[in-house]
Design brief:
It comes from Algoriphagus formosus. This is 3-oxoacyl-ACP synthase. This protein is an alpha+beta fold. The protein has two domains: about 80 residues; about 60 residues, no CATH class. About 50% of the residues lie in helices and about 20% in strands. A six-stranded mixed sheet has the order 3-4-2-1-6-5. The radius of gyration is 21 Å and the shape is elongated.
Length: about 150
């Protein structure tokens, strides 16, 4: 089964937008928790609880920023429409039956019931396949495998 690269990009964008929205909702819940926590509690207990909520808020903010950066990277790579007979950033490839889109480090997603790994161009696997053409051999999972350029 061949995958359509645009469908992979579309699914990645949907997943990242969903993640960001869920994180924004979590951020709002934490912020509301901080505001609702009042000083009527015992002093140290209040300060400890408030500090924990503040740390949670910082962590969620960091995750929102990280996912927003991934989304920006997906949009940037998706906008490049040039065709190439060699693997480059934005290529959808298959190695040993597994699909990879060289775009951003999003992880594994499912598109039309098929798993696709979205990897960064800086990842070791992407570095090992850059510039290769269909049929070229690369070392993957300890074995020599052929690269199949899908799109």
């Amino acid at each position: 089964m061949n995958l359509n690269k645009e469908e992979v990009f579309k699914q990645a964008v949907l997943i990242l937008k969903t993640r960001i929205q869920e994180l924004k909702e979590e951020r709002k819940a934490i912020s509301d928790g901080i505001l609702e926590d009042d000083k009527s509690s015992a002093g140290d207990k209040f300060e400890t609880g408030r500090e924990m909520l503040t740390q949670d808020l910082r962590q969620v903010e960091s995750q929102i920023t990280s996912n927003s950066n991934l989304l920006d990277e997906i949009y940037r790579v998706q906008s490049v429409k040039s065709q190439s007979s060699n693997v480059r950033e934005g290529s959808l490839i298959r190695i040993a039956g597994e699909y990879f889109l060289i775009a951003a480090a999003v992880g594994k997603i499912t598109v039309n019931e098929q798993g696709v790994y979205l990897i960064s161009a800086a990842s070791p696997l992407a570095q090992s396949v850059m510039g290769k053409g269909s049929g070229d051999k690369v070392l993957f999972k300890g074995k020599e495998n052929s690269v199949e350029l899908i799109a």
